[in-house]
Amino acid sequence: MPVRQSEFRRYLAPIDTSSIQQLFTDCLVVGSGIAGLRAAIEAAGQRNVTLICKRSLGESNTWNAQGGVATVLGSEDRIEYHIADTIKTGCGLCDRDIVELVVSRGPELIGQLAEWGTEFDRTDGKIDITLEGGHSHARVAHAHGDSTGRGIAEALIRKVQAHPRIHVLEHIFAIDLITDDENQCLGVLGFRPSTGLVILWAAGTILATGGAGRLYRETTNPEVATADGLGMAYRAGASLRDMEFMQFHPTTLYIAGASRALITETLRGEGAMLVDGNGVRFMQEYHPSGELAPRDVVSRAILDRMLKTNSTHVYLDVRHFDKAHFSKRFPTISELCESFDIDVSHDLIPVRPSAHYMIGGVKTDAAARTSIRNLYACGEVASTCLHGANRLGSNSLLEGLVFGQIAGQSALQDIRPSRDRFSAPRMEFAIPDSDRSRLDTDDVRNALRALMWRNVGITRKETHLAEAEDIIHFWQRYVMDKVFDHPFGWECQNMLTVANLMATAARRRQESRGVHFRGDYPETNNKQFGHHIELGKSLT
Ligand code: SIN
Known about the structure:
The protein is built from 15 helices and 24 strands. It has helices at 34-43, 61-64, 79-89, 96-115, 148-162, 228-236, 266-269, 295-308, 323-329, 331-339, 395-414, 441-455, 462-479, 487-508, 526-529; strands spanning 15-16, 21-30, 49-52, 69-70, 122-123, 126-127, 129-130, 140-141, 166-169, 173-179, 185-192, 196-207, 240-241, 246-253, 273-275, 314-317, 349-358, 361-363, 375-377, 382-383, 428-429, 459-460, 517-518, 534-535. It binds succinic acid.
């Protein structure tokens, strides 16, 4: 059964090369999280690189990452243990070769980050490491307490900005990948508020656009995470894999009306307890590892507890922490709590789960190559099979770092010098006017996010997934046939496209595995579903 997408269109905007501004580069990197920044640095070793991002360089999921980056640094820890933990958490869908590749490169690349200026927290000169759920050993390195992502991003951004061969263009919205008839990527159609549409021709294009958390009403993700890279790759015909696997983070601050802020898992790693509205500590009732059970288990346990106690949230209890230590070790959370008059030495912190990390994405091989020639993907937008059906906490910054480097290396290996102004192909793509009614895209986005939370959320079932597909198709008919001239509209089109893929994949996987829990199929069914679900324009 092919994927049903209403009003599919290859490009979201009309193209006429005779009137659009055109820029040329050897290697184009789209996205400024850890993977994009690392890829740009690698590719710039030998080629001219242009890095574009839709807002400013610092607006990424990486920047917001609190807890840390997992790697083997402790004397008791071993690469084999980290590999085993990753595979165990992945519930049968990790690719062992990829896990070995990523985990074994970790210590060296983290060391390189430190050399490049990331100030990991240390004691007596040695990098501090802590514990998170699913890790058999302490191996999560952190920077500035709970601002690890920011500490890493700042160091990489400094390096990128100082590099003579990297040209950074902020505030460019990538609308679509440009491909030819030979399944080759030629660059990106973008939009700059100051000048309008622009084509960036590139010999190699690295997609590092991040995730899809903003498809959900409750999310830890920043506004930029609207699944644009996934939508673009799908329209270009790339294979996408594991789209049913959205990871929910168990603990985001829940204050009605306030945006959902992440409360790092390392807090539980260092002794924070989960209690319900009656003050009862409950995680041991759900899993022997208690608060440090895998994230999917903790998220479902919290939802169950919320139902049983008829409450909108549960609480994190950190009242036993030394207050001075707490504010030094977790400065971001301290500040956040203070801003809502929560005194962590007396008050409980209200939390509930939120969409956090898109495990599925653009299918890549071990060299970050996608199913489209000269198109590479790394970071959250990619599906490398490191995480399987459930991501081990703090493995994603590691993956972005390792696969960012690999994507840069592969682009260097493959690409030929860039096209110049005279060899760029002529292109025309016209879009007919639509006579269907216009929907308010703001309204559609909000309604879609609520629908995804309700019907394609932590617990799924056939009737809800089928209903989600139908509603998304209805919206697609009125939104996908329009021509927008602003990122807000294109984001809405990407969100609908990708939401449909997620609902379709979730409906097809009639079993429960990792982060994908089907109330109507609560068991894992290895016989029928011990494989990945791939979707794509030409795939079933
Ligand atoms: C956290 O700090 O809890 C998030 C880290 C991650 O998702 O890997």
